[in-house]
Amino acid sequence: MRMAAGPEAKPAPAAAPRGRGRRATRASGDDRERAILETAERLLEERPLAEISVDDLAKGAGISRPTFYFYFPSKDAVVLTIIDRLVADAAEGREEILTTLAENGPRAGLRKSLENLYAAFRSRPGVVRAGSDLRPTNGEARSLWAAVMEGWVADVTAVIEFERARGAAPAGPPAREMAIALVQMNERAQYATLLGEAPAIDRDHVLDVLIEIWLRAIYGTPEPG
Amino acid sequence: MRMAAGPEAKPAPAAAPRGRGRRATRASGDDRERAILETAERLLEERPLAEISVDDLAKGAGISRPTFYFYFPSKDAVVLTIIDRLVADAAEGREEILTTLAENGPRAGLRKSLENLYAAFRSRPGVVRAGSDLRPTNGEARSLWAAVMEGWVADVTAVIEFERARGAAPAGPPAREMAIALVQMNERAQYATLLGEAPAIDRDHVLDVLIEIWLRAIYGTPEPG
DNA sequence: GAACTCTATCAACACTGTGTCGAGCTCGTC
DNA sequence: GACGAGCTCGACACAGTGTTGATAGAGTTC
C-alpha cells in the first residue's frame, strides 16, 4: 500500500510548498482546489468516506477524474487536508489549560477548556468520522492523530502534576498514564456521542459525565467499603 | 455497499444454520472452511485486513477464488466469523461481575473481572485490529460490537447502582452514563496498548491505571481545592 | 449399472475503482 | 508567433470483487 500524499520529491522550483495540495503554484486553479475540498466536506456529511469515489469528488468540482489528480495525489490527501485544518481550528482558540484552570477553578476551568476544544468538531461530524475511518489504512492519518493526542496528553499530564505538587490532588498512578487514559476516554466517548453510536452518553450530558470522572480521578481518593 | 454475510434466504432444507459460513451442509468440505478461517487468523497477525485479499485467503486454503465464495459470501464474513468466536471466548469464562466484586472486594474483584475479560483479546491482537478496521465499512461488525459494549455497560451499570444503594458509593451522574464512559475508556485504552499505538499506557500498567480511575470514579468524591 | 442428485471446483467473465500517460488546449510574455 | 507553464481529459493498465456456467466426482435409488 502506497503512502498517500506528501509533496512529490520532484523539482518544485520556487514558491513555498502549500500543504498536501497541488505541486507549488499560485495560478487560477486555486478555485478548483477549493471546489474539491468543498465537495469533499459536503459529501462527507452525507455519506461515509468509503462510499465516496475520486470520481464523485471530481464531478462535484466540475472536472474530470484525471484532472483531480493534478490537484491532489489521492482521495486520502483531500481528507487529510481537511483534517489538518479542522485540527488547526480546534487548536486555535485554545488557551493555556493551566491558566484556565487556575482562573476558573477545576470544574469550571475543565468545562471551559473541553467545551472550547470540542466546538470545532461538533459542527462537522462527517469530517470527524472520515478521519477516524482513515486511520486503519492510512499511516499519515494515524500519525497526525497521534500527534494531536500527544499534545493533549502532555497538557493534562502537566495539570495533574501541578495539582499534585500544590497538594490539591492526592498521589496515584503516574500522571502521564492517568492523562492518557482520561484523554482516550474523552476521545472515545465524544466520538460515540457525536456519531450517534449504539451505547453512547446523551449529547447534553457527555461533558458533565466526563468532567465528573476527570475530577474524581484527579482529585479524589476512593475509600471503598 | 452490500451488507455482507448472513445465511441466504434460499431453501436450506434440513440441518441447523451454522453461523456465517457455508449454506447448511455437513460434508467433507468442512476442512476447507476451517482452512480459510485459519489462513485468515494467521494472515491477520501478519498484516492488516485491508492488505489481505480474497485471493490470499483462497490461496492459503489451497483453493481458487471462486471456490472461496462457495464457503463464505465475502472476506468480511470470514472476519465476522472469527470475531464472533473471539467474543464468545471472551464471554465464556466470565462470571457474574457483581458476585466477583462481592467476594473479592472492589479493587481485587474489578481486577479479576477485567483480567479475565481481556485474556482472550490479548492473544490475538491481529483479530482485534481487524474487527476494529471492519467497523467503518461493515454494519454487521458495528452492531456486533455495539451488542458487546451494551452487555458490559449493563453489567457495570448494575454494579454502580448496587454500590450506591448499599451506601458504598456516593451519588453522582446517572449510573448508566458513568458506565458507558468507563467502558469506553477501557475499550480505547486497552486497544491502544494492545496495538502499540502512539500515546498508550504501558502494557504492565494498563489495568492498574484503569482500575484506579474506575475506583475513584465510582467510590470517590472530589473535594478540589 | 444407468439415471439422478448433491457437493465441490474453477476458467472466464463483467464490473468498479484507482492511478498514469500522453496529447492537446489556453494563456501571458518575450 | 512561438515558447513555456498551467491546466485538461480520453484512453489505458491494473487490482480487486463477485457471478456464471460448465464439469467432475461421490452417494444414493431403482
Helical fraction of chain A equals 55-70%
Query: Major sheet of chain A, described briefly?
Result: none
Terminal-residue CA separation of chain A: 54 Å
Computed over alpha carbons, the radius of gyration of chain A is: 21 Å
Could you spell the SSE succession of chain A in H and E letters? HHHHHHHHHH
Beta fraction of chain A: under 5%
Low-confidence stretches of chain A: 1-18, 23-27
What is the subunit organization of this protein?
homodimer
Shape of chain A, please? Answer: elongated
Mean pLDDT of chain A: 88
Which structural class do you get from the secondary structure elements of chain A?
Answer: mainly alpha
Give the largest chain-chain interface (CB within 8 Å).
Answer: A-B, 61 and 60 residues
Number of strands of chain A: 0
Task: Provide a descriptive summary of the structure in words.
Two copies of one chain form a homodimer. Chain A is an all-alpha fold. Helices cover 64% and strands 0% of the residues of chain A. Chain A has helices spanning 30-44, 54-60, 65-71, 75-92, 97-104, 106-122, 125-134, 139-165, 175-194, 206-219. The longest helix of chain A is centred in the last third of the chain and has 27 residues, at 139-165. At the A-B interface, α7, α8, α9 and α10 of A face α7, α8, α9 and α10 of B. The structure holds a DNA duplex (30 and 30 nucleotides).
